[in-house]
Amino acid sequence: MQEPVIQTPYQRLGGEAVLHELVERFYGYMDELPEAAPIRAMHADDLSGAKSKLFKFLSGWLGGPDLFVQEFGHPRLRARHFPFSIGVPERDQWLLCMRKALDDIPLDGPFREALYEALARTAHHMINRED
User: Is 124 annotated as a binding residue?
Assistant: First the structure.
């Protein structure tokens, strides 16, 4: 009897190429959507650094190569985001962009929803301001 093959979320997503696509779409929505303008303003004009860091973080977070840790050490997400004032509106803007980006990627519905919920929990953890 053959053992079932267990895929990491990184593999289920589609690996490196699809993760790059997700990150590009995410930041594309951040650039395009007027309702995301406040979080876009928190980023540098050139998004290439943010794209690279998000890709590297998500790679390891999803069970793929741990690129962020190899380059920057432990993610310490909350500490790294503390210089930015993040409340419920900023969390929701981030999640809006991520939801739209995930919807652009061909994923099965239950996996997409589980991934979104995990990202939503992480985004909620970034809140550092009472509104």
Answer: yes
